[in-house]
Specification:
Layout lengths: L18 H10 L15 H12 L6 H7 L20
The protein binds protoporphyrin IX containing FE.
The site of protoporphyrin IX containing FE has 17 residues, from helix 1 and helix 2.
Length: 88
């Protein structure tokens, strides 16, 4: 993927950016990159929660990060909203 997806729980990530800026990027995605828009997948509260988490990523303890950063080889569970009605 180009540009590469940033590792937002490592280093500075977006901790220097206003939370409103990250909220906008998570909600609307970033055009011409692989960054998708999440506003139809997450509630407004969830969009703010994930944006606040990233804005404060440098304050998150290592033990919490270990829980959040799953092994990339572990398949993610399917999104409920991605299931069509016949799969439910
Ligand atoms: C809930 C999940 C996600 C969140 C909260 C999130 C959040 C973000 C944020 C805040 C940025 C901006 C970083 C910056 O300004 O420096 C970003 C960039 C990016 N994200 Fe995501 N992201 C998510 C999922 C994904 C997924 C699933 C992909 C691809 C499969 C992706 C690909 C990218 C890429 C390629 C960029 C860099 C765009 C650029 O360089 O301009 N993201 N993401």
């Amino acid at each position: 993927m180009y540009p590469k997806a940033p590792q937002l729980l490592q280093g500075k990530g977006v901790t220097d950016d206003p939370v409103t800026e990250s909220y906008w990027k998570v909600a609307n995605g970033i055009r011409l990159t692989g960054m998708p828009a999440f506003k139809t997948k997450l509630t407004d509260t969830q969009l703010w929660q994930v944006s606040q988490l990233l804005a404060h990523a440098n304050e998150v303890s290592d033990s919490v990060k270990r829980v959040l950063v799953t092994d990339i080889t572990t398949p993610a569970p399917p999104l409920r909203s991605a299931l069509s009605s016949k799969d439910k």
